[in-house]
Amino acid sequence: MAVAFDLQKLEVIGQPVPVVPDVMHFLNSNNSDHNSGAGQYHISDSGSLAYAPGGIIPDPENLLVWVDQKGNEEPISSHTKPYFAPRLSPDGQKIVYFTGGTEAYTAVYDIDRDIATQVISEGISSWPIWTPDGSKIVFAWSDYSIDNIYMMPADGSKAMERLTTSENYQAPSSFSQDGNLLAYVESRGEIGDILIYDFRDKSTSPFLATEHNEGYPEFSPDGRWIAYCSDQEDEGLFKVYIRSSSGTGETIKVSPEWGHSPLWARDGKKIFYKRGRQMWVADVQTKPSFSVGRPRLLFENRRLSVINPVRGYDISLDDQSFLMVKSEEREPRPMTEMILIQNWFEEIKRLVPTGK
């Protein structure tokens, strides 16, 4: 698109018009971290245009599924959307999620009624999680700038309330069972820190803020422990650890090799984590002292999505099945040609005359 611009008044003139069709956009790629949405073109100072054709890749058609501990899938709904990071409500009746792609919004899905209701459609919202009583959701939101953390009623009946203010990207991850504490991730460039927001006095304090990359914090059901990931042993390679939620005492390593996205069983007797497309589990004992058993592989499924910096799946109320996104299987879209248009400024003058 192009529109005439008045340099004296510093304002546009007239309406935008299409000038080049079918320009490729970096959107809906297999690696969601790289989905900037930017058009793949460049204009030289001398007036030449180079671009990659291809247009916009359609949104992925993902499914919400239950996956049992043997890896068997059962669709929750027949609706396909670019689902991300579903979380089950405390009563097990609803799912909150956010979408990516050409439309970005947060919605609540009623499982029994098979109806999804958008609760946040303005700005960019992501990583929604339920408060322990199920009355509200906490999420990351921005007006297309830097995501900070907000809260609103789960039915969207009231405006969002801002909880944190930072120049760094933030993503909520997990509540303590009493609802007083929220663990979230704040990114300083390539480094993630784990912070705790206290609703009682609206204060923020660090749980882990080191030179290492940390993420995926998860409170244990009794609130005494936090599972998390860190690359403290191997830079760039996450492993799963557990520490007291007070931030003091021994650090317990869960995953001998790399792993991410830890999740406690609701009874606190197991801890699950992902290793790429694999799901692993380790037994947890709390008496006579806290200990974690040797992890074992549950299943592998290459079509179950992997996201960060917080977990993108949940577990059923009976601890028997995982709530996950089954991602659409799509081949990478190759860029097979580049088009060069010389003297393109002359074409722009014809298509978008300034009247001067």
Features:
mainly beta; Neuraminidase; 2 domains; 5-stranded antiparallel β-sheet; 4-stranded antiparallel β-sheet
Could you please describe the fold and organization of this structure?
With 356 residues, the chain is an all-beta fold. It folds into two domains: 2-56 and 338-351, no CATH class; 63-326, TolB, C-terminal domain (Neuraminidase). 2% of the residues lie in helices and 46% in strands. Strands 23, 24, 25, 26 and 27 form a five-stranded antiparallel sheet that branches. It has a four-stranded antiparallel sheet with strand order 6-5-29-28, with no helix packed on it. Strands 7-8-9-10 form a four-stranded antiparallel sheet, with no helix packed on it. Strand 9 and strand 10 form a beta hairpin. The two termini are 20 Å apart. Mean pLDDT is 89; it is low at 28-34.
Oligomeric status of the shown chains? Answer: single chain
Tell me what the CATH architecture of the largest domain is. 6 Propeller
Which consecutive residue ranges, at least 5 long each, have pLDDT under 50? 28-34
The CATH topology of the largest domain: Neuraminidase
CATH superfamily of the largest domain: TolB, C-terminal domain
How large, in whole angstroms, is the Cα Rg? 23 Å
Q: What does the overall shape look like?
A: elongated
Largest sheet: 5 strands, antiparallel
Provide the β-strand percentage band. over 45%
CATH class descriptor of the largest domain: Mainly Beta
Number of helices: 1
Helix percent reads: under 10%
Q: What number is the mean pLDDT?
A: 89
Number of domains: 2
How many DSSP E strands? 30
From the N-terminal CA to the C-terminal CA, the straight-line distance is 20 Å
Structural class: mainly beta
